[in-house]
Amino acid sequence: MEGRINIPVGDWIESGVDWILDNLEPALDGIAWFLGLLTNSFEGALLAIPAWLLVLVLVGLSWWRVSWRFGIFAIVALGLILGMDLWEPTIKTLSLVLAATAVALAIGMPVGVAMARSDWLEASIRPVLDLMQTMPPFVYLIPAAIFFGLGTVPGAIATVVFCMPPVVRLTNLGIRQVNREQIEAGLAFGCNRRQLLTKIQLPLAMPSIMAGINQTIMLALSMVVIASMIGAGGLGNTVLTGIQRLDVGLGFEGGLGVVILAILLDRITQSVGLRRKASS
Amino acid sequence: MEPIIRVRELYKVFGPNPQEGLRLIEDGLDKDTIFERTGNTVGVKDCNLDIAEGEIFVVMGLSGSGKSTLVRLLNRLIEPTAGTVEVRGRDVTRMSQRDLIRLRSEDLAMVFQSFALMPHKTVIDNAALGLEIAGVGRTRRRERAQEALDQVGLKAHARSYPDELSGGMQQRVGLARALATDPSIMLMDEAFSALDPLIRTEMQDRLLDLQREHRRTVVFISHDLDEAIRIGDRIAIMQGGEVVQVGTPKEIITHPANEYVRSFFHGVDITQVFQACDIMDSENIPVLDADTTAGEARNRIAHVPGNEAVIVDAGGRFQSVVQAKRLGELTLDRAASEVAVEVEPVPEDTALADLPRRAAQSPVSIPVVDGEGRFRGLVTLQRLVEALDRSRNAAAANGDY
Predict the structure, then answer these.
(1) Nearest CB to A191: which of B112, B133, B161?
(2) Which among B102, B116, B129 is the nearest to A184, CB-wise?
(3) In chain A, what are the domains?
(4) What CATH number does residue B287 fall under?
(5) Which helix (H) or strand (E) holds A164?
(6) Per the count of CB atoms within 10 A, which of A231, B17, B336, B385 is most buried?
(7) Are A62 and A260 in contact (CB under 8 A)?
(8) B119 to chain A: which residues are within 8 Å by CB?
(9) pLDDT band for position A200 (50/70/90)?
């Protein structure tokens, strides 16, 4: 149209997506195969365990790592999930969260370490992380569905992309915040670069990295609900069904399941980051 | 003797263009002008030092004088801009990374102002850090770390975590960590500055005890002249990146190179620096045998400015002091020792600060003896008062600096 400036960003993205589809199909298949395997293994393993045993493990973990009060909360909360007959979707969601988190950590932590070592890399990755975090999460669903179709795998991919930034940021930050004299102590006692990382920087950055892992898990959980829109299944599916049928009760039950899972995961992962001190 | 650390024409310029800074130093510009013109900061300028094996060498200066930079140039935690640092004749500045790591883990240990312990490790694993990095097996390194903890008096706390210990105890862990690798050189960067005064003195004594057990070369950074005097065999004073004076504590106190050096004396107890042997009279004291007659004794005393003589045994060991006025009570052929006063002598390294109390109790001058009890000299009342007056003036002269 005359007189109107039109920068076709959308067209560029589309042609980029087409190019990837045409040229990188084997790579896409590989990713899909790997993520599918990971998610299905988690799901298979968790569903193979009898529900009562898994409840027992989770309650025990809550009791031991957090507090007896939280243990009682866990009994009530998990009992509620079983009572609402949401056990299977909950496990499906949990498996998806675990698989996505595992991949996000496997990529995110090394990236964070690399960022901490190079100012240039930090400056160039930071805007990418900003983009990943501020982009409305629904947007990830489109390319994920185009590349990988519908189902668990594209859901997991979208989740990985969405939940990775915190662990990258906090690994970078944690390593950069290590006291200068502690670094010097490592070097003065003869550390090489690898030893400096494994014996000094990573252990001292651990509280920060653990906070990053906790945030990553929380983001993953919030994303898997959205990912149910492309068929990722689990509790998100329950919520989605509730919305489609305008069934307030069903929607609320699914939402409650997500909240319970979120509280359990949050508290238990946070307690791993705390020093053994609290107990002594 | 060949120095264990030899520093020659060492420069460190921080900033965007160190080489340019270096050229400007050679052109004779001062630190501030160079910073204004180029943004480069001169850290260390033309430093030349010889540090002898087994001595405690204190580097002193105000903050910003370059002393912490200097110590980091010795183990190359900071890369020098120019110059050489030789440790046992090997140039650290041109060493390969592999050799440098080896030197650091075997020969050069470091103790830090903020302790720099690892909060997630127990005390014993902290002490074993150097050995862990060097790849020593767990059992062996814990053994050696435990020995080091015993040496610093932390035997019972091996299983504690650093944040369960007081500051003084944490720094003892820092010290144990350095000792565990059995280094010949220890670099101590303001190691005791973060501790409160009582604990600081205790740690200084502990360091001196450790030195008595096993002499190591210690390069000790400090901003406190009291500390430097207490522990230092020699002191280097840094000002604006330059070493302005190197000498024994006594040399520095008696002949400060400039006003800056003198400014450190303020509030420092100089009577700790001087010892009985520095102020005693050793030339004008007649030394008599046990059987010297009163007549001869009076004759000898008449030829010296003072009015006292001392009696020693055949081995030269101090016995007693004879005063001229008491000799008058005797006929000339009697033994002078009949009127001699037996007093307890003081060792020659007794601090000046401890002498006034002795003088007040003693009816005669204070005799000074060496380690074998042999007579060295007498501290007369006049000499004592003069010395006290001098040190009071030395301290006061800087009060308005």
Answers:
(1) B133
(2) B116
(3) 31-274 (1.10.3720.10)
(4) 3.10.580.10
(5) none
(6) B336
(7) no
(8) 204
(9) very high
